[in-house]
Structure formats: structure tokens, C-alpha cells
Specification:
It is a single chain. The chain has a 14-stranded antiparallel beta barrel. About 45% of the residues are buried. It is mainly beta. It contains 6 helices and 19 strands. It is about 10% helix and about 55% strand. The chain has a single domain, classed as Outer membrane protein transport protein (OMPP1/FadL/TodX) (Porin), CATH 2.40.160.60.
């Protein structure tokens, strides 16, 4: 009877956690620090994202290093919620265009389950974790541009979204008491949205080249699925010293949807259109190497370096439009054509350090810092692609009570400003402009071992 009561209690707890996750996710939108965040789960986030050499919970293992599953000794369910408050400002004095970034707080959940097999070195993991995000929501006076250089659609919403949500199945194997290996495979849902006065950049076929630089109102919305893999290793040469390495593969998602709009200001007449849209998003490969050292019974120091291959992934963003609905536009552009948006992001290293202090046996205090140079070049920067944050300071705490672990984290992506001299985008809309962005993050992770 006691065993049955325990199971019922565990089921009630898990049901409550899942319900909370659904409430957190309903209608949520998130503006992220670039495409990848600083750590998975509140414990990792509070230490600057230094988790590849630790990853002792299912959430951290499935997000940062699947080899962490191999050292898991009990079943554990983790549920995390992340809330972010963005701040930012865009200005182009020559056209009186300026705006503050929408600072409404938003949130997303993350969850993971780890189950060790009895009398086996194998542990399985299941997770739902936001893999990468780039969201921006502005409203400002459309800077003059287009074929004439003077076309403006007035006050407009400018919104960009590239989001990837990853559901993964993983396995960790404890090879020895000192070595663990791990692998997870993820199914990724990708959604893309662009609402803005859009300037055609590199139209194909070549017959459409005279319309490069033309501006139209555009509402693009596509979605699709892809997959990727992550492998990892954890090595414990000493009981107080761990080294970790993980690799996340590059992947491409072919997404489909719709594109609507109207080039009324460019052409001087209303020509509403609809196209079937396709967008191919390539997300970067990533390599992380780190160490975790408990140099004192109450102190743990962690350091990590990430390499993110933005250059091979975020070079251009191809957009294919098919089956155009407007006969007049079809006679000029054709009913099917492709545009290619230049991004030219640069591959970068991210450097992380974190410190944990065991104030008591059950209470932990944490702090951290990370730095990575902005991958976005000035030449292609717009407020919709302003993933330019570089310095992040973090703090947090954790509390262990019976079978429960509660972790709280705060991150502040310090204000970053990037200026555009002569824009490399056609029509020069964003030449001589400035964009500033900062972010406040709060994360809470609840863990239950059963």
C-alpha cells in the first residue's frame, strides 16, 4: 500500500508539473540573446551557461551534454520556466525614424525526464527544450528606400521571428566510474515570420533583376520540421574534477507557408498579392569544451568555451515564392521566383565562467559571466536581426529539500549598441542608423527525484 501511495503521489506531482508547463507555453513569445541562449535550466543559467562539464540533471544533460545522463543514478523529472524582458532602441536621425523595442515580458517552458535502467549503465532521457530563437518586435517610421530611394510605407510594425523548438530522445552510457558517453536525437519544429516593408535583394531568375531594390509590404509565415543530433563525453579523473565536450550537428529545415502583401507605395497603385512561400533555414553546428573543479568542499568553479559556426549557416536566407495570385505582378516578376536575403554572420567563440558556493548542505549561491562577440556584421544589421548582445552577467541560488531541487537564476545581457554606416542591403534604408538591445532573464527550474 505504501508503494502504491508513493506512485500516486508521484503521478499527481508530474501531472501538476505538466499542467504548469502548458500554462507557461500558452501564447508565449520570446526575444532571445541571439539564436542560442546561455545555458539550459536555471542552475546552468545562473553560472553563465557553464554546464558541458557538469550536466547532472536530465534537463542540463539533454540541453548541454547528453553524457550527463550516464552518471544519473535516480529517476528525475525537471520542469523549467524562463521569462525575459527586452529593452532596446532604434534610431535613424536623417529620416526621423526611431522606436523602442516592445518590452512586454514573455516566457517559454523547458522540461526533461531521465530514467536509469536498473542494474544497467544505461540511462534514457526525454526532453522538450527551445533550441534556438531570434525574435524582434518594433514599430517605427519606415525609412525611405525602394527603387526611387524615397518610398516609405509610414508608421509600420517590423517583426521578425525564427524559432526552433526541439523534442529529443537521448541515451547516456556509464562506460566506467570515470567516463560517460551520450547521444540524443531531436525533432525540431521551426517557425518563421516576417512582417515588415520588405526590399527585394537578389531576385532570381536574372530577368527579374531590374526589380532588385523594390519595396513592398510583406507578411511571410512558414513552418516545418527537421532533425539534428548531439553527442557528448564526460570524464572524471578525480572525484572533484570533471571535463566535458559536446557537439551539436548543423541542420536545415525546409518550411512552407504563405506570403501576402501589397507594393502600393512603390508602384503608386494597390496590387495585393498572395504566394505559396518556402524558406530553407540552416542552423549552425556547435562545439563546447569545459571543466568543472570543486577546489574546496564548499566551492565549485566551472569554465567553458563554445564555438558556433554562424558563417556556414547564416550566410543567406533563401525565400521562394510560388503560384502568385496577382496577374499584373506575375507579368513582371513571373508567378514563381526566389529572393536571397544576405546575412553574412561570422562564426564566433563564446567564453564562459561560473562559480558555486554551498552556503549550507542544502543552499547554494551561484554567479557567472559570458562573453561572445556579436556575429552580426554592420553591413546587414537591421532592428529585426539585432542579435548583438556580447556581455552577460548572471546570478542565482538553489535549494535542496528531500526529493526536490529548486533553482532560480537571473541573467542580464548588458546593453549592446551597433551602428551602421553604409548598409550592404539594397536601397540603403538602414544606412547611418543605430540599434541598442539588452535583456533581463529570470528562470526557475523545479526537479523531482523518484
Amino acid at each position: 500500500m505504501a508503494r502504491m501511495s508513493y506512485r500516486r503521489q508521484a503521478n499527481r506531482i508530474l501531472t501538476w508539473m505538466v499542467a504548469t508547463s502548458l500554462l507557461l507555453s500558452a501564447g508565449s513569445r520570446l526575444l532571445a540573446n541571439g539564436i542560442y541562449g546561455n545555458g539550459t535550466g536555471a542552475r546552468s543559467m545562473s553560472m553563465g551557461g557553464t554546464d558541458v562539464a557538469w550536466a547532472e540533471s536530465p534537463l542540463e544533460a539533454m540541453g548541454d551534454n547528453p553524457a550527463g545522463l550516464g552518471f544519473l543514478t535516480t529517476r528525475e523529472f525537471d520542469l523549467g520556466g524562463v521569462v525575459v524582458v527586452p529593452e532596446g532602441h532604434f534610431s535613424k536621425p536623417s529620416s526621423s525614424s526611431s522606436s523602442d523595442l516592445n518590452d512586454s515580458p514573455e516566457g517559454l517552458p523547458e522540461a526533461a525526464l531521465g530514467v536509469p535502467l536498473e542494474q544497467s549503465p544505461i540511462t534514457f532521457g526525454l526532453s522538450f527544450i527551445p533550441d534556438s530563437m531570434l525574435l524582434a518586435d518594433w514599430n517605427y517610421l519606415d525609412p525611405p528606400g525602394g527603387l526611387s530611394g524615397t518610398t516609405s510605407y509610414g508608421q509600420q510594425t517590423d517583426k521578425s521571428e525564427i524559432i526552433a523548438l526541439r523534442t529529443a530522445l537521448g541515451m547516456g552510457v556509464r562506460v566506467t566510474d570515470k567516463l560517460s558517453l551520450g547521444l540524443n536525437l531531436g525533432l525540431i519544429y521551426n517557425q518563421n515570420e516576417l512582417v515588415t516593408p520588405y526590399v527585394f535583394q537578389n531576385l532570381q531568375p536574372p530577368a527579374d533583376a531590374p526589380f532588385n531594390g523594390a519595396k513592398t509590404l510583406l507578411n511571410l509565415d512558414t513552418s516545418g520540421f527537421g532533425w539534428n543530433a548531439q553527442i557528448g563525453l564526460l570524464y572524471r579523473p578525480l572525484t572533484n574534477l570533471q571535463f566535458g565536450i559536446s557537439y551539436k550537428s548543423q541542420y536545415t529545415v525546409h518550411s512552407t507557408g504563405d506570403a501576402t502583401g501589397n507594393p502600393s507605395a512603390e508602384l503608386g497603385l494597390s496590387l495585393p498579392f498572395h504566394y505559396d512561400a518556402e524558406v530553407d533555414n540552416t542552423f549552425p553546428q556547435e562545439v563546447s569544451v569545459g571543466a568543472s573543479w570543486k577546489f574546496h568542499p564548499q566551492w565549485r568553479l566551472a569554465a567553458q568555451v563554445d564555438w558556433i559556426d554562424w558563417a556556414d549557416a547564416f550566410d543567406t536566407l533563401p525565400v521562394i515564392l510560388k503560384n502568385g495570385s496577382n496577374p499584373t505582378l506575375n507579368s513582371a516578376l513571373g508567378s514563381n521566383f526566389q529572393d536571397s536575403i544576405p546575412l553574412n554572420w561570422k562564426s564566433e567563440f563564446v567564453y564562459r565562467v561560473g562559480l558555486e558556493y554551498a552556503m549550507t548542505q542544502n543552499l547554494y549561491l551561484r554567479a557567472g559571466y559570458s562573453y561572445g562577440h556579436s556575429p552580426v556584421p554592420d553591413s546587414t544589421l537591421t532592428p529585426m536581426t539585432a542579435a548583438i548582445m556580447e556581455h552577460t552577467v548572471t546570478a542565482g541560488m538553489g535549494y535542496h529539500w528531500r526529493n526536490w531541487q529548486f533553482d532560480l537564476a537571473y541573467q542580464y545581457d548588458l546593453p549592446a549598441t551597433q551602428n551602421v554606416g553604409t548598409s550592404g542591403l539594397r536601397s540603403g534604408e538602414y544606412s547611418n542608423s543605430s540599434t541598442e538591445v539588452s535583456l533581463h532573464w529570470i528562470a526557475l527550474t523545479t526537479s523531482f527525484r523518484f
